[in-house]
Amino acid sequence: MRNKLIYLLLFILPRFYSQEQEVYPFMDLNSNHLFFGKDSSSFVRFYQKLDSFSNKTLKRISIVHIGGSHVQGGTWSNSFVQGLQNELKPVGGGYFFFPYKLAKTNSPHFVSSFGNGIWKKCRCVGKDYCLPLGMSGMSVRTNDSVCEFGMALTKKSLIKGFNSARIYHNFNSSFEFRIVVPPEMEAVRLDNKTEGYTQFDLAQCIDSLTFQLTRKDTIQKDFILYGLSAESNMANSLYLAALGANGAQSSSFLKCTYFTEQLRTIHPDLVILSLGVNDSQNKAFEKEDYIEHYDSLITKVREASPGTAILLTTTTDNFIKRRTPNKRSEITKDAMFELMNKHGVAVWDLFSIMGGYKSMLKWVKAGLASKDRVHFSGKGYTIIGDLMSSALLKSYYANRKKENK
Description:
This protein is of the alpha+beta class. It folds into 2 domains: 261 residues, SGNH hydrolase (Rossmann fold, 3-Layer(aba) Sandwich); 139 residues, Jelly Rolls (Sandwich), CATH 2.60.120. Strands 1, 2, 3, 5, 6, 8, 10, 11, 13, 14, 15, 16 and 19 form a 13-stranded mixed sheet that branches.
């Protein structure tokens, strides 16, 4: 009864929460809010941007979500942005994404990539580590004489079309690539070598794009692709960059050659950092190292976008090799709150919302998490995204109410 009452107060009454969301008694819905230290100025500025966005005086809000497999799968990030979209009702939107198909790994459900030829992948993790890397923590390269690559929005995309696309690549003079569009469609090309991308502006919205790559000579090897961006250039839009790399730890994105440079090009207003599961699964885990890596990552984010709002999510409850409850998740949670006070960032305590230590067993039993006791089901990730957007919007409206007094 108590949980149902909390549910009614926190989720059904606010108009920005889905009325179809199920209630699970093992969740701690009292914890579903943002935590702030003494300095919340970056979020006050972000909420002012949301005000401007709502009244159509600000054209674009850019959100970046950085993490491991929880983020690479895409559902958590997309569900979060959908919650904001349902409330703020933007006209358009966009995505930055990595062509995971070329790297032969799993892709988010809202966009698909395709291509032919032989591509070699580089990742910021494990045996696939090599340089250079972009902000997604991955890159793919090819030396084929002729090949194609491209992307397509799926039915689950939050946008139905786009009229502007960017390709982040290495500008190798031994290769040339062109956009493949019908002859009657105008495509204006801009090669921005300084910022590392080629942009195509189209005369009308489409839902897929193909690029043809041709090697002109053998002077320089490898065309390197870092990611693609698609956006509908409308009156106002919510833009999402879900930067996920399976197995990523807090130190992984620090290895990425062009992390700061590429992040700067999408002008993030809100950056969400969700790293820690893979750190805490390691026997050699040290809280001090974890905090130091986050210190450096926060510094890099602020180099790319000074004053941006940064939200840290606590590590989810998880098990080591399916058998051992991971007590280090509580240590990573403590680290998040230390970082909150140190850097003036916010914290969303997902560990407590889940139900705390060993709560993953209940998520698995309810069909919200995988049997590996680390990852979630599609439904589980959707709930997590819904809860996070609800927590942010509650904080936003509370701040608006406070300012209007």
